Each structure stands twice: as structure tokens, then as C-alpha cells.
Amino acid sequence: MIYLVLALGWEAASIFRKGVIKNMRRNIVDGNSFAFLCDNIDELEHSVQENLPRVSVVMPLKGFGKHNLQNWRTQITSLYGGPLEFLFIVESKYDPAYHVVSRLITEYKDNLEAKVVVAGLSTTCSQKIHNQLTWHFNGRVAYSLTNNNILHIHYRADVPSFHTKFSERRYEQALEIFSWMESCSSLRLSSWDHAARLDLIAKAYSTSQAEEYYNKLQSPATRQAASFPLLHCYVMERDVQKAETFMAQLQSHGLPVDPHSFNEIMNLYVATLFQVMLNDETVKVGWSTYCTLANIFRKNGLNTEAQACLVKAEAKLSPTGRLGYSFVMTCYAALNDSDGVMRMWEASKSVPGRILTAYYMAAMSCSIKVGDISQAECIFGKWEAGCRKHDVRVSNVLLGAYVRNRWIEKAERLHLHMLEKGACPNYKTWEILMEGYVQSRQMDKAVGCMKKGLSLLKSCHWRPPVELMEAIGKHFEEQGSADDAYRYIKVL
């Protein structure tokens, strides 16, 4: 009797499981790529999520493979509807992941808060996260862990902002900071500091002077760290002979050559390597491979070859899945090819299934990137015609384009339109409007936007960009508003 009951139970469970799988497959065919999570994809959209808590996503990265970009893009186009920030953590700006993620963030800068943070040389993901989080908040004192788990204390006021100078392309001033650090008995340049210094020398002066600096380095660890930026110099100059000789020199001296160095020199051989892949019957070349190759060609100034790769990538796209279309569209946008962007958008509409909000946002961003704001407005109109609830994340993409072009009146009209439709502005909305009002010197409105943005995020550490905060601080100073200035400083 017991065995009979168990057998009937297993049979019932099997029937139920088959029904769930059948329903899931039917939903996937109908265009719900997230059927394994939810039967109704509309329940996962941003627009039906309200009053969700702020989430910080901390992602340690190292290296870059062809599958990584798809994973990272999936992460930052999250369906989570609450306030969300992404902190991508790398050991060094010489890690290929640093540059790939930086470009990815730029594509989505109007509809998410994200940054790439250099946490320093570390051995574990937890150590990277710890080192970065100690600097993330606005404290004066920070703590960091070294490889041997020794705790160090740092004071912000004691260290000039090298990264600020570097990001502003003020290479000679950044080199002066290194000279100052070298003169301080309490500070010792790490291996990665020497690597950064060599890179600055190459950018500010020449590759030959960077070579001289490299030859003066004594420590094997320092020479290993500095080898990548020097190799990068050879690759950027398309000097195959020097690059090959340098790689052989590293190996002959017993210095380990990591995959990043091989990836770098592969840029010189990419066409030959790709031809070998095509001739190998065991290698299946899809749209992602062609997109990767197109990006490599583009970064090396070979735009014609990049265009040819994207044409081949189009031929590999699936007629039943929309994922590849956004990747190819983004590549066309990077080449400033408005026809390619438009072609991909039109082709993607023929794919069965409902177009997700995230895809509308990607298409609008690509159109704006190639300077076709009218096309972005058209895409926004199509999204608005079919949306069930107005989501400011979509309008923020267009709002940012208006502000960057100093069309503050159009930005205000769009903002009021979204309010009339029942949309709830988020902190990014107020930040974009704040920037527009600062540009047009409507400082009272800018202050109002800042207050509204901060009121949404009282429990978190989001702050407007530094240049906007400085502009508002100067406004208070000019107005002689001591009370407002005091409250402003207290909040920030």
C-alpha cells in the first residue's frame, strides 16, 4: 500500500513538472525570456515596482572574455525597479575589464548609477570588496588590507587625487603627484604605482622615455606590473617587432606573462587569428565573435574592417531572439553609423514577442549616441504608446540628451509630461534636471532639484556630481545665504 501511494505521488509530481516545463517553453516562444522566473513578464518590468529599497551591487572583476560583456550588460540592465548602483571593482586600470566596463557604463550613463573602482592589488574577491568599500563613503579615514592581511590606515587629506588628474588628462600634473609621493618618507610606491607612472610618462612624453623608466626598475614584481603598460604602448604604435621582442624578453628573464599581456599582443594578430578560426571546422563563429572582432578593429582605427564584421554579425542573428540585435546595434553606435543603428532597430521589431523596456532604452541610447535625437524621440513615442505605466528610466535617457544639448525647455516639457502621466521621478531625474538648470544659471531651480533628489535617498550615500555641488555652493556664497549654505554643507 505504501509503495502504491509513493508511486502515485511520483506520477503526479511528474505530470505537474511536465506541465510547468511545457508552459515555460510556450512562454519563451511567445517572447518571455524570463519564463523560468515568472509566467507574466509584465510583473518583472520596472514600471510595476514601487517603493523598493536601494541596492548596491558590488562586482569584483578580473580579465575579460567574450562572454563577460554579455553578463555585465545583463547585470546593468537589471529589471529591479528601485534605486540601484553598481560598483565594478578591479585591481588596476591596466586590467582589460577596466576599459570594457568603463565604455559599457558610458552607454547607459543616463539611466543608471555605476562606477569602476580601482581597489589595488589583492588576492581575493572579498579583499577587493573590502578595500573599495572603505573608500566608497565620504569619510576622511579609510582602511585597506594588503595581500598578507595587514591592516593599513589612510587619510584622504594626506594623498592628492592622482586619479582625478589622470581622468582629466592632466598627465604632467599627475606625474608631479608621483614625484611628491616619492619624496615623502611615509609613502612608498607600490608595483602598480610604478606601472601607472610609466603609463603617464608614455602619455605625457614618449614611448622611448617610458622604456628608459622601465629599464631602471629593479624589483621583479615592479617590472612585471610595469610590463603591461609598456607592451600596450607598442601595440598602440602597431610596432609588432618591439612587442614580440619585449614578450620574449619577459619570458627569458623568468617573469610570468599573464593572459592580459597575450590578449594585448593578440590585437596585432587578430585578423590572422580570426582567419584560423574560420578555417577550423570545430569552431562555431557566431554574432558575438564578429562583434568582438569589430570592437578590436574599431579600437585600432580600422573602421572599414569593423563594418565588414558587423555585416557578418547581422547574418548570424537569430530570427527568434532579440538579444544579439542590441549588441550589434551598440557596435554600430560606437562606429557612429546611424544607418546601422536604424537597421538593427527595424530588424529587431520583426522578432516575435513583446519588446522589453530595457531594449527600448538601449535603442534610444544608441540613436542619441549617433546624434539622431529625433529617432530616439520616435522610439520613445512607440514605447509610450504600448506601455502600461510610465517609467522615468526611459524618459531619463531622452532627458539627458536634451540637457547635454542645452535644451532645457524641452527637458522641462518632457518632465512635466511624465508627471502628468503619473510617473514618479527618481534621483537620476533630479540630477539630470539639476545639471540643466546649472547650465542655464537657473540656480534656484537647481537647488530645488537637489533637495528633491536628496529627499528620495535620505538613507543612502548618493550625492550629485562634484561640479554641480561646487556650482550650488558658489551660488549660496554669491547670495550670502548663510543658513542655506550651512544646511547644504550639513547634508553633504
From TrEMBL:
Listed GO MF terms: mRNA binding
Family: Belongs to the PPR family. P subfamily.
PROSITE patterns noted in UniProt: PPR
Keywords, ordered alphabetically: Repeat, Transit peptide
Species this protein is from: Zea mays (Maize)
Pfam families found in the cross-reference section: PPR
InterPro entries referenced in this protein's UniProt entry, alphabetically: PPR_rpt, TPR-like_helical_dom_sf
PPR repeats (start-end): 391-425
Protein name: Pentatricopeptide repeat-containing protein
Keyword Membrane carried by entry: no
